[in-house]
Specification:
about 200 residues, 13 strands, alpha+beta
Length: about 200
């Protein structure tokens, strides 16, 4: 299983981090060791003083594919989920300043939360799916897939040019505005519409 992550897919998030709008999707990978185990807390790593939450809609690939045309992309997944791409922002900033890869900031152990899954046929419109993240009792991120620069099927087409997609691979489709720092004893709860998809604590 590989985790394929998309950066800069929501305009307001691009603005809040003062990044440039990309001409193509920004793609990076996380290893399977980045997955936070079920019912485990997220431990802030000792190498960062500024870890941020980034809530994202997830897509689970259900068949092997390469060079997938957008019009056939819907056949390659039947479940939608929600997760968090944890980012050591201070580490990432230092790496970006030197023109270096982001893996140390994005791919450390526990940096990927994968919540529950919803059958795709239970979702009325994938291109207008509302999701949110609560930090303790306050909503800190609100997203709507209608605001994606590249929709799910377009991402599958693009990513499959470079990587063979395999059964069980997961695509993190990008985060909306509102990312922020986590602190010990925070509780993070993710929702698609009004359905709770995950709830974790921070240590």
């Amino acid at each position: 299983m590989k985790l394929i992550c998309i950066g800069r897919n929501y305009t307001e998030h691009i603005k809040e981090l003062k990044n440039e709008k990309p001409a193509d999707p920004v793609v990076f990978l996380k290893p399977d060791t980045a997955v936070l185990l079920k019912k485990q807390p997220f431990f802030i790593p000792d190498f960062s003083n500024d870890v941020h939450y980034e809530v994202e809609v997830l897509v689970k690939i259900n068949r092997v594919g390469k060079h997938i045309d957008k019009k056939f992309a819907h056949k390659y997944y039947n479940e939608i989920g929600l997760g968090i791409d944890f980012t050591a922002r201070d580490v990432q900033s230092a790496l970006k300043a030197k023109g270096l890869p982001w893996e140390k900031a994005k791919s450390f152990d526990g940096a990927a939360v994968i919540g529950n899954w919803i059958p795709k046929n239970e979702i009325e419109n994938l291109d207008a799916l509302k999701f949110s993240l609560k930090r303790n009792d306050s909503v800190v991120q609100k997203g709507d897939t209608s605001l994606m620069l590249w929709k799910i099927d377009e991402l599958i087409e693009y990513v499959s040019k470079y990587f063979t997609l395999k059964i069980g691979d997961i695509i993190f489709t990008g985060t909306p505005a509102g990312v922020g720092r986590v602190f010990p004893n925070d509780k993070l709860t993710g929702l698609i519409e009004q359905r709770e998809m995950f709830s974790i604590t921070v240590k």
